[in-house]
Amino acid sequence: MKEIEFSEDQKDRMISKVKAYFSNELQQDIGGFEAEFLIDFFSKKLGTYFYNRGLFDAQHFFNEKMEEISYVIQELEQPEG
Description:
It comes from Microbulbifer taiwanensis. Helix content is 79%, strand content 0%. By secondary structure, the chain is mainly α. The chain has one domain (8-76). It is elongated.
């Protein structure tokens, strides 16, 4: 799996969310460096779980749509003879 890269704006927004979570939920202030370190840690250690779940969900959605298309095609069939 290729390493996921985020834009600076995306990184900044993620860091802001982690800092806000620590402040609001844990009543602890952490700096941007610490927040970025946590994001890197979670993405490396847990990212594959989220990635694989995304693939599973995409496959499930794709299969549902293919089944719908199959029904539409069957409805288009003309009776023989």
